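Why do we care about 3D structure at all? Because function follows from shape, and shape follows, mostly, from sequence. That is the central idea of this module. The next example makes it concrete: a single protein chain, its amino acid sequence, and then its structure expressed as C-alpha cells.
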Amino acid sequence: VVTEAMDDEGAHRCAEVADCLQIGARNMQNYSLLKTVGRIGKPVLLKRGMAATIEDLLLSAEYVLSEGNPNVILCERGLRSFDTTSRNLFDLTAIPVVHGLSHLPIVADPSHGTGRRDKVTPMARAALAAGADGLIIEVHPRPERALSDGAQSLTPDQFAELMRQLRRVADAVERTIAGVAAG
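And the structure:
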C-alpha cells in the first residue's frame, strides 16, 4: 500500500498502515516533510515536482537519505508545459539521466505524466525502453465514472493489452518484467 503523506502529522499516521509513503509533486520541496519521512524509515516514493529540475529531485531525495532512510524511489510524472495537448510534458530523458547520476531507482507515471488515456500506453512502452525501474498505471473498470483521474485511467482490458505489449518491449531491449501489482 502506497499512501501520500501531505504533512508531518499525516506522515506518521500513514506510516501506521502503509508500506510506502508517497511525497507528491506539490510537496517535493517540503523539507520538513522530507526529513520526517526520512526518520520514519518506511520506503518513500518521491514524485518530481511540476517545475523541478532533475537536480532539484535528487536534492530533495537527499533530505530523506540524510535522515538515515536509504529506501527512496524517484518518480517521473511530467513537468508543467505551455502545450495543452497533454496535462504535462512527460520527461522520459529523466530516466537515463537519473540512472547516470544516482543509485536510486526511478519509476515512471505515464498516467499523470500525460493525463490522457490514449497516451498512457505509448509512454509506458517508451518509459520501459528508457530504463524505468517500474511504472505506475491507473486502471479503473469504468473510467468515465471515476471520481478522479478517469481521463487517464485504462480499463482492465486495456491494461492487460499494455502488459502484453510491455513484455514484447522488455524482450526487445533485453529487460525483464518482474511482476504486476493490481490496484
